[in-house]
Design goal:
Elements lengths: L5 E10 L2 E11 L4 E5 L6 H8 L7 E6 L2 E2 L7 H6 L1 E4 L11 H11 L5 H14 L15 H14 L4 E5 L7 H16 L3 E5 L3 H7 L2 E6 L2 E6 L1 H6 L4 H11 L2
Parallel strand pairs: 3-8, 3-9, 6-7, 7-8
Antiparallel strand pairs: 1-2, 1-4, 4-5, 9-10
Helix pairs in contact: 3-4, 3-5, 4-5, 5-6
């Protein structure tokens, strides 16, 4: 039996008396794209942030290709190199060029020399269709281009898994397609991806599996066609009816 690229076992997280994640378990296979859907406040973003320990889970275990990320002696910086994360905000350094935004982690984390780091950065920018923008600054780019730079920055470290937390929600509608196209290309190249997003059409078309979370628990999961056309749980059905306007 193949080892899951990412495995979460019994993950729980509370903020004070508020239980945000309640004993969640999930496996993501290598090269699988899994979409997480659910209402605001259901725990989706917290779940992603726990997966690379930006949030510290209260209990449970997270394994990356069979290796625990939650053991006390784990090197978190090394672990985070293997799990790329793209946020709703682009988090680019405004005073650095696009090339330097992407190459910074390669120099600081991987210890690459400037020439090697720039070479890898330009290759990553080429993959997101921004090879000609390496000298530009974030303020000179559209929101969609800035998000693609953020994706290139994560990809440059050659992660084993990519986490996307609402990567298109801060973008104007006409810019969303470019970012989704990059994600399609990443899937085609075999990247393992866990995506929180309200891009329902994209989820239906591109995801291998859809997870529905409500009140910190996985309520339902299955192939997109089943979840979108014949959800078994009334809460899933109600949510999808609301977001689709039916």
């Amino acid at each position: 039996m193949a080892i899951a690229a990412l495995e979460v076992r019994g993950l729980s997280k509370s903020f004070g008396a508020n239980i945000v994640l309640d004993d969640i378990s999930l496996e993501v296979a290598k090269s699988e794209m899994v979409f997480i859907l659910g209402p605001s406040g259901s725990g989706k973003s917290t779940f992603l942030r726990c997966c690379n320990r930006l949030e510290e889970p209260d209990s449970g275990e997270i394994l990356l290709n069979g290796e625990s990320l939650t053991q006390k002696n784990v090197n978190l910086n090394k672990a985070r190199e293997k799990i790329g994360m793209v946020f709703q905000a682009f988090n680019l350094y405004p005073h650095l060029s696009v090339e330097k935004n992407v190459s910074l982690a390669l120099r600081k984390v991987r210890g690459f020399g400037t020439e090697k780091a720039n070479e890898v950065a330009r290759s990553a920018l080429d993959k997101v269709g921004l090879a000609d923008k390496y000298r530009s600054y974030p303020s000179e780019l559209s929101g969609g281009q800035q998000q693609r730079v953020a994706i290139a920055r994560a990809m440059a470290l050659e992660p084993q898994v990519m986490l996307f937390d609402e990567p298109t929600s801060a973008l104007d509608p006409e810019l969303v397609g470019d970012v989704l196209e990059v994600m399609r290309d990443m899937k085609a190249a075999g990247m393992t991806m866990l995506v929180v997003s309200h891009e329902m059409n994209f989820a239906r078309e591109a995801a291998d599996r859809v997870i529905f979370i409500d009140n910190g628990s996985i309520i339902e999961e299955g192939p997109p066609e089943k979840i979108f056309t014949a959800p078994a749980n009334p809460r899933t059905k109600s949510f999808l009816a609301r977001v689709s306007g039916n």
